[in-house]
Amino acid sequence: MAGSIQERGNGKYLLTYHVGYDHKGKRIRRTRTVQAKNDSEAGKKLALFVAEIENKEYVAPSHIKFGEYVKVWRKHAAKKLSPGTLETYDYTLNGRILPTLAYYKMESITHVHISGFLEDLEEGGLSSSSIQKYYNVLSNIFKLATIKDVIKHNPMAKVDKPSVTYTEGQVYTPNEVEELFQVLDKEENKQQVLLIKLALKTGMRKGELLALQWNDFDFVKNMIHIKHSLSYTKENGYVLKEPKTKGSVRKVSIPQFLIKDLRKHINMKRKARMDSVELWEAGKYEFVFSADLGKPLYPSVPNRWWTRFLKRTGFKKIRFHDLRHTFATGLISKGGNINKISKYLGHASITTTMDTYGHYLEDDKEIADLINENVN
């Protein structure tokens, strides 16, 4: 059945769409009030409204509960987010958000509820980076609910976004890096050792390291071309995609002392492919860090190896991702240009660099002033 438009004045239009009849023969209708410049624009919004209803993405405003709306949001998010991000969001939702907010009506959740929830997370000892993930999930959900007129006001608008801070001890000092390399050189798993060294000396993200293929290395110019990131989810398996942000597609220098080892490693992979012939499991792909028959490593493999290595050797414990932070803070401590550091790391903006590494800039007034000058 066709929809209709009714002008209400002051640029407001009532959209109506009939979806059938109830058991008493009475028409069932869905309505939405929208802002539009003219009848033509209102007509376009009606078409979108009808498509939303037909695709079963429409939710009547007012009484829906948060837990019910999350199901609607997830269907929408599956079209927009990467499988890996969606899987992370699911984990975050099921862990603490839904147990706390599931039975609240969407319209009754205010910034007070959200702020209290985030404060409870902080008091519970959760890291600032984890708290920010919870904030991002909630922000995504309530943004869609506002756009779809499920709620009139977005409660996240009055909630301060948590800032991520890194405390001392989460990176290695230059002396510790030197000691670490000496310990790594005694390890038998040369592939994992090479991966760790690249993380420390290029600042690449784990997904970017695992996505590297043989032709991403230019040994003439001694450069690595970062073009992809690798992720894995139970639902979709391996996913090779463009990196995290537009700026993440970039080139980084190959550390001179690693060139010989990298050449040797890639040549070994080439030989393994030739020897395996039809048994090769990677198809057209030629991953630098892979299983014997070319299949890429699971994203959890580097973390597990790193954790066991630290436990076995007794070396100072930091997370695998903190190898990237070690690289960045090393450049900062040497007075590197913050704009260049930001681009080298593949950050979306210099603001991201400041939010992440501001803690390490407190004692360096010159660089701190430079960052503030570029952000304002």
SSE topology sketch:
Blueprint: E1 3-9, E2 12-21, E3 27-35, H1 39-54, H2 66-80, H3 83-101, H4 111-123, H5 128-147, H6 174-184, H7 190-202, H8 206-211, E4 217-218, E5 223-226, E6 229-233, E7 237-241, E8 250-253, H9 259-276, H10 300-313, H11 322-333, H12 338-345, H13 350-357, H14 365-375
Antiparallel strand pairs: 1-2, 2-3, 4-5, 5-8, 6-7
Q: How many helical elements?
A: 14
Query: What is the radius of gyration?
Result: 26 Å
Taking strands numbered 1, 2, ... along the chain, how are they ordered across the largest sheet?
1-2-3
Q: In which range does the helix fraction lie? A: 40-55%
Task: Identify low-pLDDT runs.
Answer: 363-376
In percent terms, what proportion of residues is strand? 5-15%
Quantity of strands, as a count: 8
What global shape is seen?
Answer: elongated
End-to-end separation in angstroms reads 53 Å
Describe this structure in words.
It is built from 14 helices and eight strands. It starts with a strand and ends with a helix. Helix content is 49%, strand content 12%. The radius of gyration is 26 Å and the shape is elongated. Strand 4 (217-218) and strand 5 (223-226) form a beta hairpin. With 376 residues, the chain is an alpha+beta fold. The strands form three sheets. It has a three-stranded antiparallel sheet with strand order 1-2-3, with helices on one face.
